[in-house]
Amino acid sequence: MIQVFDSAPAGLQPAPKDPRMLAAGYQVSVREVNFGTVTDRESLMLAFLGGLALTQSFGRNWDALYDVLTDPETRPARFALLLCGYARFRSRHATLAAPLEATLIDAQAEATRLGRQLWLLIEEADSDPDAW
């Protein structure tokens, strides 16, 4: 079975079983963003602020999020963003999920252009990949 880290990042993907353990074996740094309490753009930006361990100077907008994810000074060359509870968030907040996904995909493409890797992994509590 091919593992997610065997291939180049390709958009939003289902997280593998035990993603943190698997990532360690591939020398991929993982940060987790929990979407369980996200209800609007402000709480979304706060989830990224906490999940990425950002400072309060984080701009809390799409451009600032893109910049943080593509900054080689602050992100490792092999980096996975574990999006916890994202499928449920997406189904409840489609209008907020659309610009977020565009930002994440753009950041992933820029990382690739720079010779870096940014995986965007969706993890659900029930670990059911068909849930999203």
UniProtKB/TrEMBL annotation:
Belongs to the barstar family. This is Barstar family protein. It comes from the Bacteria. Residues 30-122 form the Barstar (barnase inhibitor) domain. Pfam families: Barstar.
